[in-house]
Amino acid sequence: EKWEKISGKEVSYLTQDYLQEKYPRKEGAALAINGGLIPSQDLLKDIQRLREDQALYAGKTLLACYIGETEKNLSIANQKEAVQVRIEPQLLSKTWEIFQHNGNEIKRDFDLLTQGRKSQAISDPFTKVYAPENVFIEEGAVIRAAILNAENGPIYIGKNTEIQEGSLIRGPFALCEGSTVNMGAKLRGDTTVGPYSKVGGEISNSVIFGYSNKGHEGFLGNSVIGEWCNLGADTNTSNLKNNYAPVKLWDYVRGGFANTGLQFCGLMMGDHSKCGINTMFNTGTVVGVGANIFGDGFPRNFIPSFAWGGAAGFSTFQFPKFAQTAQAVMARRKVAWDQVEEEMLHKVFDLTKNYRIWEK
Length: 360
What we know:
The chain is an alpha/beta fold. It has two domains: 2-84, no CATH class; 96-359, UDP N-Acetylglucosamine Acyltransferase, domain 1 (3 Solenoid), CATH 2.160.10.10. It is built from six helices and 33 strands.
């Protein structure tokens, strides 16, 4: 969406085979851009200068090149003239970089989305706003007896959202379309919620993707939560080690834990994962796709995809049962569970088998 907004061009996807049907590529030749790049106007200028016989690099990292209609990967870039980018690009390569950059990106997106537009007014007399010039409210948003403090960064309230009574929100903050902030929530800066998500309790410097819920008390900090996740009541994530040491996080590429260099790092949770009430996550925990976590004590710091259990041990959340649950969850939001979704997630189930060491 960012690339579409700043370029004015339609965007499609070139991705892994098992993802391609859900995220299709449009027909015809195209300009391929590294999906980890954070869009900017300066970067767009360098990309737009490219000729069809050139490829844009930052060092040895490919940033962009033209590809033909039939090409399914970027190997064609090796046959093109290498051109170095003229600015220092921001390139996301680690999950924790999503929350690291989120505050600055909210500020940039706020300017991009609100330029030349007028915010809806807040009609509720019991809502207090600090720095109202930094608050933008879309049509259909309902706010009741809340405090919005945008002195340290903008607050964006999307279409048809709801902020319930007693909520405290500090910017930079983005509440995306159709999302709800439950009563008494404490939402600190550098946080994005939604679309169509529900949040409560205390959240700080976190990104919660679409259709996910953290609706109750409990703390979530310096975390990234995928789509269709649910955090049970009083779930708490640690984002700081007792000895204040840098946090290590599971790295799929290296097949082990990597030093993030961060003092604050919480939970990375994949799509369709869930945890029961009173779940405790240790500092720097990674949860894969389709996991179901419950029970007392701290589970391990790396919980593979389709794991079922907790600190007492894990078994496999077999795919038919997972699919049944996912279908029920999506139906509740009036979103279809179709064959494309099922085949894609079944492929993820197969690809992640080696991480479920109890199966061996």
